[in-house]
């Protein structure tokens, strides 16, 4: 029995060392430019840009596979930030991807909801909770306003409510370049 335990411990140490070496030897470096672009994007995961989420869109921008003006939730402010970061010229939002709208949150009319779970399956950030054949509700603090839950709803019980501006959500809307000129 003691011999078996020693053999198992030895194998565990050997495999741990091999895995540790492989993790160091075959480590994949993240592109810091992709991280910076992804930080600018609004993280709605709405796919309006033509990519399944903000990270794939950031990767496509960094690889010059996508233009900087395809994100309606980011709007003109996001496009300006991307242009400044990448040293590119500002372009207005591409109308083929949608229009800029005020930030909003999904609201489910719980009296109409039939509990089909289609909205839960469509939500990319798991902001909708509920069970099959029971009403669902939206966790407002988690909802990104992507509107992906609206289309699959068979009873049209989901509406988008604009978010009011609060001290926590307020942002300075002028580009930093203008502030530098004023100083």
Automatic annotation (TrEMBL):
The keyword Nucleotide-binding does not apply. Residues 1-23 are annotated as: Hydrophobic. InterPro entries: 4Fe-4S_dom, 4Fe4S_Fe-S-bd, 4Fe4S_Fe_S_CS, Elect_transpt_cplx_RnfB/RsxB, RnfB/RsxB_Proteobac, RnfB_subfamily. Binds 3 [4Fe-4S] clusters. Keywords: 4Fe-4S, Cell inner membrane, Cell membrane, Electron transport, Iron, Iron-sulfur, Membrane, Metal-binding, Repeat, Translocase, Transport. The keyword Cytoplasm does not apply. Part of a membrane-bound complex that couples electron transfer with translocation of ions across the membrane. The complex is composed of six subunits: RnfA, RnfB, RnfC, RnfD, RnfE and RnfG. Belongs to the 4Fe4S bacterial-type ferredoxin family. RnfB subfamily. This is Ion-translocating oxidoreductase complex subunit B. It comes from Chitiniphilus eburneus. The lineage of its organism: Bacteria, Pseudomonadati, Pseudomonadota, Betaproteobacteria, Neisseriales. The gene is rsxB.
